[in-house]
Amino acid sequence: MKHIVVIGTGGTIASRWQGSGYAAEAAGSEVLALAAIPEGVEVRVVDLFTVNSSQLTTAHQLRLLRTVHEVLGDPAVDGVVVTHGTDTMEESAFFLDLYHADQRPVVFTGAQMPLDTVDGDAAGNLYDALLAAATGRDTGVLIVFGGLVHAARGTLKKHTLDAQAFADPSGKPLGRVKFGEVAWASRLPARPEPLPLPDAVTSIPRVDIVTHHVDADPVLFEAAVGAGAQGVVLVGTGAGNATPQFVRAVARAVEAGVLVALSTRVAAGPVAPLYTGGGAVDLAEAGAVLTGTLRAGQARIAVLAGLLSATGPAEQTAQLRRIVAAAPALETAAL
């Protein structure tokens, strides 16, 4: 038998109608009762918390991280499934992936339709996640949703309502669930060196996201710094571009010890130092760290992890560079 632990955190998969909208309220055992259990799999449920994932905090994510590591401290456990809301699943999954050193998989899944929806997607997604957790090895943290298996890094929610809600715009799936089996790709992700688990923190660093657009100025960027942000993600246009005013604001922030990352609002492709005149060339020179194919939410998680795992601006910047430069998933065969 494969022993899988399901950790419940809420989300749509645990939601019921509240009279004016849906909200997470069901326990993990209620969610699990919807799904068939794959043959040869034994499941234990841990109810961690039950919230809509739009309400998650870093404190929730740290609690989840430590719980997963505690669960995997039992050698009898073969894998972990985390049921999670789709709104911030990409952030929590990537956060856990940065610290995941175990060969056993941690699989995130959820639903686009609430718990009691007739012909909803909760049961199928949970069954597929249990399969992936029981059969995967050295895959890192995964998102299993809509019949596809994705690496956590680079995967984001691509559609608000569609059942196949997740994708890596710059990569390919790692597997596909077919006829009750996971068809894994011929090559799986290269696993970067995991970060050490963060110590207990009395103060969680504030990390904000600011987006560039036509007519944008650095007022919101500077407001974030003024509000005490220790890290800021600037979401540029194109390959990571803004204006000379943003360049000056970034330089001042970096000089003050703020960790600044540069992402892009474009769906796919890496941030690249191609343009001057306020572009990524100048922003990088001002001290912003380019985040490759990480989009805003996961870029923020990378900054947060850099702040939690190093002390002092120089060490934190070096740590962030290591995080964003970590080997991505290898090119996978067509599925």
UniProtKB/TrEMBL annotation:
InterPro entries: AsnASE_II (IPR004550), Asp/glu_Ase-like_sf (IPR036152), Asparaginase/glutaminase-like (IPR006034), Asparaginase/glutaminase_AS1 (IPR020827), Asparaginase/glutaminase_AS2 (IPR027475), Asparaginase_C (IPR040919), L-asparaginase_C (IPR027473), L-asparaginase_N (IPR027474). It comes from Actinacidiphila oryziradicis. GO terms for molecular function: asparaginase activity. It catalyses: L-asparagine + H2O = L-aspartate + NH4(+). Gene3D superfamilies: 3.40.50.40, L-asparaginase, N-terminal domain (3.40.50.1170). Keywords: Hydrolase. This is asparaginase. Signal peptide: none annotated. Residues 206-313 form the Asparaginase/glutaminase C-terminal domain. The lineage of its organism: Bacteria, Bacillati, Actinomycetota, Actinomycetes, Kitasatosporales.
